[in-house]
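Example record for the data management plan.
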Amino acid sequence: MRRLALVGALVAVAMTLMGASVASAYTITPMCAVGQAAPQPCTDGWYTAPVTLSWEWTPTTSGSCTESTFASDANQTVSCEITWPSPGPTVIQPYTVKVEVSSPTATVAPNRAPDSNGWYNHAVTGAVGASSFSGIASCTSTTYAGAATTSATVAATCTDNAGKSISAVSSPFAYDATPPSLSAAANPGDQSVALSWQAGGAAAPIASVQVTRTGGTNAASAAMVYDGTGTGFNDTHLKNGVHYTYTITARDLAGNATVQTVAATPAARLLSPALNAHLSAPPMLTWTVAPGATYYNVQLFRGGRKVLSMWPKQATLQLRRRWKFEGRRYRLKPGTYRWYVWPGLGRRKAGRYGHMIGSGTFVIVR
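Corresponding structural encoding:
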């Protein structure tokens, strides 16, 4: 009994192997022809040009599988069925035709909204939108973080599953990550400080300049004294002899800011000539404008003697080489001169004067 069972098993194995051998001898091969090229066994990938699909089978026998041409995008499974004469089998061979003759498309744009007033002020990455019949395999995009400009762009490159590549560039956008330039100065006057500044953006225009002041009666608090687009501001009604600090902030349209601090102590003072200046020509005397003054009294002394007194309406007086004072003639001869200035209040006939603006000396040399 054991011998019969063993023989039966061997026969079954032999029949199975014979069936597999017979089946493997019957094959159907899909053949693909691109353009005028001869048909070749089809691949599993994508074709990027029109394809004609035909079939070859072995061994040769009668049968017919339709030849098909795919001239447009296709992702379609077709089959060929051949039945060989007995004892041959019936074989069904499927093949999925993947053809992409169209081109992929791609767009790229900044991946976020502008930072300020339509401007970007930090790195911008491209956001990509792409489509393809075969499907997009990968996309890469650039990041812009370069020079300030109104025509920055980001770009992208995509590859689809058929191996086709396409590039895209965004529309220009405004980019400026550079703080604006700023230079400022403070010129103290009598109860006033004249502030001036020059500001400019790398590409984005200046949007505003703000000035805050600290000092005075409440030195710990800061007060905004200017907010605008000008290039200067005259801060008035200050206390002479008090130190004031001004923080000037310039902002451009892109949202970048630059801060500079200047300081000044207002006081009534003479401006020129400098103290004890040595001169060979008649000087132009200048001093700070006194609030409320309608005129000034300028007095000039030489050797302790008054040699000139005048009442100019402006805070300046040009001395001459020769002049007449109280019936006598004088000339600007070499020596040391001292000059004084007082502000006149109201009409000159009233003879009302404020506190002396200052006194100074200069030396006339040969």
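Summary line stored alongside the record: The domain at 270-364 is CATH 2.60.40 (Immunoglobulin-like).
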